[in-house]
Design a protein that fits this description.
The protein has 865 residues and is mainly beta. The chain folds into 7 domains: 129 residues, Jelly Rolls; 86 residues, no CATH class; 161 residues, Jelly Rolls; 109 residues, Immunoglobulins (Immunoglobulin-like, Sandwich), CATH 2.60.40; 112 residues, no CATH class; 113 residues, Immunoglobulin-like (Sandwich), CATH 2.60.40; 88 residues, Immunoglobulin-like. It is built from 5 helices and 59 strands. The strands form 15 sheets. Strands 2, 4, 14, 15, 17 and 24 form a 6-stranded antiparallel beta sheet that branches. Strand 37 and strand 38 form a beta hairpin. The longest helix is centred in the first third of the chain and has 11 residues. The chain is elongated and about 145 Å long. The chain starts with a helix and ends with a strand.
């Protein structure tokens, strides 16, 4: 319903949107929603606008209340163009039908004579109503074409015949429709491919988003569009709960694209073509005649290898083979169809995610290859377009093994000329960035990293970038090491900006202000912004790096582990470039105050250990930072190829309390009554404090209770900055006599005292056990007045007994203790003390006095002016 309302509003305000929209404006189209079926019709923008870029955002999470799917399956986004046919033959759509209006015949040689039998007729259905193109307008029986005048040899084999000319030949015409039914047929375009992660114990949180530029499909992404996203597995491929939960969004950015698409042609579509010596015959070359307006072109190939046939190279999932793009039988491009998986952002996973594969990884998109054909084509000319693979002729083993096969979708996209001479755009901000897709590089306290792309005709040799956040911006000219060609991308490391640690979210922006020393022709794609949280840890300036390397020798290799520390200028301050297998290291690290980057690398891609190698005898290592043997930072083992941690040196997080000792004393409390105290927790310095857990041990038995923590937290965790605090409200309500003790544990990131223990102490007192001889000789009277001069409470106590210590409390009407318990010594006769009332708001309170086993209470009214 929400989508229908949104579409209606778009229609109502279409005129005003067209009137005021401008390049750079965005239109967001949400198609598949979480928990909805992964297929359907969706409304896209009309063709009356141009879009400089169209982005597909593929967001996955685990289904609510379930873990993600266990296995790595192929998943797609298919766009279907639906058509109504001009005719069908026996309910099937064919390109051409030649037929006879009367019976056609089969001829055979039986018992030395020709036998003639009728052929099966064909039901021909015609659809010629252009207003209702799937409405049947006529149907009748026809017969297939045939041969007669047969001659047979003595064995009965036909050796000659003549074709009977068909009565009629019809060719298919089709009308595109924005619906599908039993009559329509579709032309399917693959616009995105993804391999699902190994989902056991995987946490995708609120979702992880992969983004792909699909501007080349602009002619298809308009009007009413049918999308389908089948997911692998054994269940319903369109059910969100069988694997991961998908949210699919398209982002249309108005403006002039790098070049306008003229034609989109499918070259090859193979979903499981066997990889053998006949590959080149199966993936046949395609001849294409370019019009005079088709001045530039790209071959787009989406390819992934699957199946491992028990051969020495385990093709085609795990074999690194060469792919070749050819024009007119000449190899113009070649590259390995391969992807390193130890550096993907979704890790660790519950399977063999670290193993490199044929252009795919579990929990990652399949990246298209783009081959620029423009230098090798001529407008108006005819060219042969071909794609080949490295020759392969290993015989796959049977049994449980599977055939080596490729899934290939190949397209030819033709365009007009490049629209701008000078045009650069920012495609990514890698750091700082909160987006989980960049989690291997964030958070940072050092140099931002962005990615730019040349979308203009001229090579780019330098760019000037303005960047920063809040009110702090810098301008930097970056000279490139080599010219950036049209449609090529390059990462750029910018100069350092000061990013102080904190929990608040900020917006980082970067803008291209000059290209090759001048403003470029298209300023509408020059700026990009992201949000980031500088949650950067602070470590001591002196610590020990404790490293134990795995016994990688059981895998037949030397130790692949190395590490290094860099400062903000990229200078390596400490490093260990080589290590030995199964060896412990304790390296002393001393750094000045500042920001630093620590990187640990496994050149074999299995972190400090990996479960799949345990059968081979691999034992995991470890990595931690410590001071005097106390570890304050422990790193995980399952991180693949590398792990990066940026940090600052300075004061370490430290917990402070509002009490001088580690004991919170509730004093004497009568049985059946209670006493409340408050404990305040705060950080000691600018490094803040993270409170992970608060726990009372044996609290129920000892009658201690944690009533509340203020302010409240939804998950029981608190990130406190300097000046912030939390208050614990605690109660002691004894049921038996005697001293009671229980530990209160507060777990924080104060690594020298990460489990702060406070002893709660109180004594239960039974009134029936008090000495009655003392009571009968004790006379106790008290009164309270508000002193007009000081505004304090004057408490007067008269007793005829010898001196005893007394405790004084003030409670509100709900029984909440409002001041810390006071202890006073009262002698015989008249005693007078003053209690500060300035901390109490106006209201009615109960003053409670305990003296030599006698309890007196008195209501008091506070009226401060």
């Amino acid at each position: 319903m929400k989508r229908l309302i949104l579409i209606t509003l778009i229609g109502i305000f279409a005129y005003s949107i067209n009137l005021f929209s401008a390049p750079g404006d965005k239109t967001i189209v949400r198609t598949i929603e979480f928990q909805e079926r992964r297929a359907g019709w969706y409304d896209f923008p009309s063709q009356d606008k141009k879009y400089q870029q169209i982005l597909l955002h593929y967001k996955l999470r685990c289904p609510p209340g379930k873990q993600c799917g266990e296995w790595d399956y192929l998943s797609y986004i298919f766009l279907h163009e639906w058509y109504a046919p001009s005719f069908r033959a026996d309910k099937k759509v064919v390109e051409t039908l030649a037929y006879m209006k009367d019976t056609s015949w089969n001829f055979s040689w039986v018992d030395n004579q020709i036998v003639k039998t009728p052929k099966e007729s064909i039901l021909l259905e015609l659809y010629s109503d252009t207003e209702n193109p799937t409405k049947l307008t006529d149907s009748f029986r026809v017969w297939p074409t045939y041969y007669d005048n047969y001659s047979f040899d003595n064995s009965g084999k036909a050796i000659d015949s003549s074709l009977v000319e068909p009565d009629e030949v019809i060719n298919l015409t089709k009308i595109r429709v924005n619906y599908n039914n039993d009559i329509t047929f579709s032309d399917r375009w693959e616009i995105f491919r993804y391999i699902t992660p190994y989902g056991n114990s995987l946490n995708l949180g609120d979702g992880v988003t992969w983004t792909l530029d699909v501007t080349d499909f602009a002619p298809l992404l308009t009007g009413r569009v049918y999308l389908a996203s089948p997911n692998g597995g054994w269940g319903d491929p369109y059910d969100q709960n069988d694997q991961e939960d998908l949210e699919l969004t398209f982002e249309f950015i108005e403006g002039t694209p790098p070049r306008d698409v003229i034609n989109l042609k499918r070259l090859w579509s193979f979903y499981g073509i066997t990889y053998d010596k006949h590959f080149e015959d199966k993936v046949a070359p395609v001849e294409y005649t370019f019009s005079e307006t088709e001045k530039t072109a790209v071959m787009r190939v989406v390819q992934s290898g699957h199946g491992f046939g028990g051969t020495s190279d385990n093709c085609a999932e795990f074999c690194r083979k060469l792919g070749m793009a050819k024009i007119d039988d000449v190899i113009r491009y070649q590259q390995y169809v391969w992807r390193n998986c130890g550096n993907i952002p979704v890790y660790p996973q519950g399977g063999t995610w670290i193993f490199d594969r044929s252009n795919w990884c579990p929990g990652a998109e399949v990246r298209p290859y783009h081959y620029e054909l423009t230098p090798y084509i001529t407008p108006g000319g005819t060219h042969k377009i071909d794609y080949d693979m490295e020759y392969y002729d290993l015989q796959w083993a049977g049994g449980s093994n599977t055939k080596p096969n490729w899934v290939i979708a190949g397209f030819l996209i033709t365009y007009g000329d490049i629209n701008h001479n000078s045009d650069a755009r920012i495609t990514e901000i890698i750091s700082p960035n909160d987006d989980r897709i960049y989690n291997r590089y964030n958070p940072v306290c050092s140099k931002p990293v962005i990615k730019i792309q040349n979308v203009g005709k001229e090579d780019i040799n330098s760019v000037e970038i303005e960047y920063g956040f809040n009110e702090s911006f810098l301008v930097l000219e970056v000279k490139l090491d080599s010219p950036l060609k049209f449609m090529d991308e390059r990462e750029i490391e910018l100069s350092d900006i000061i990013i102080e640690a904190g929990k608040s979210q900020h917006t980082f922006s970067a803008e291209i202000v000059k290209v090759n020393g001048s403003s470029d022709d298209n300023t509408y794609n020059n700026i990009k912004s992201v949000t980031f949280t500088p949650d950067i840890p602070t470590y001591s300036d002196k610590f020990t790096l404790e490293l134990k390397t795995p016994n990688s020798n059981v895998l037949g290799i030397g130790s692949p582990i190395k590490y290094y520390f860099e400062d903000m200028d990229g200078n390596i301050l400490y490093s260990r470039d080589t290590t030995l297998n199964d060896r412990e290291y304790a390296d002393e690290i001393e750094l000045p105050k500042g920001c630093f980057k620590f990187t640990i690398v496994n050149t074999a891609g299995f972190g400090l250990g990996f479960w799949a190698y345990q059968n081979a005898g691999l034992r995991s290592g470890y990595l931690r930072f410590s001071i005097n043997g106390n570890s304050f930072k422990s790193f995980p083992n399952d991180w693949g190829s590398y792990l990066i941690q940026e940090f600052r040196t300075g004061k370490l997080p430290e917990i402070t309390l509002n009490i001088d000792s580690d004991t919170l004393d509730f004093g004497d409390v009568l049985l059946g009554e209670f006493a409340d105290l408050e404990l305040e927790v705060s950080p000691a310095n600018e490094s803040g404090l993270i409170v992970d857990d608060i726990e009372l041990l044996l609290a129920t038995m000892k009658r201690f209770e944690l009533l509340s923590v203020e302010p409240q937290s939804s998950d029981g965790k608190y990130n406190l900055e300097e000046g912030e605090s939390i208050t614990l409200k605690l109660r002691f309500e004894p049921r038996t006599q005697g001293m009671k003790y229980t530990p209160l544990q507060i777990t924080t990131n104060d690594f020298l005292n990460f489990k702060k223990t406070i002893t709660l102490k109180g004594r239960g007192v039974d009134p029936a056990g008090i000495n009655t001889d003392k009571l009968q000789n004790t006379s106790l009277m008290m009164s309270a007045n508000l002193d007009s001069k000081s505004g304090n409470i004057e408490l007067r106590v008269s007793t005829d007994n010898i001196g005893y210590s007394a405790s004084i409390d003030i409670f509100d009407l709900l029984g909440n203790r409002k001041i810390p318990t006071m202890s006073e010594f009262f002698g015989n006769y008249d005693n007078s003390i003053f209690i500060n009332s300035g901390i109490l708001p106006n209201g009615v309170y109960i003053l409670k006095l305990q003296y030599n086993g006698i309890i007196r209470t008195l209501p008091i009214l506070i009226t401060n002016y």
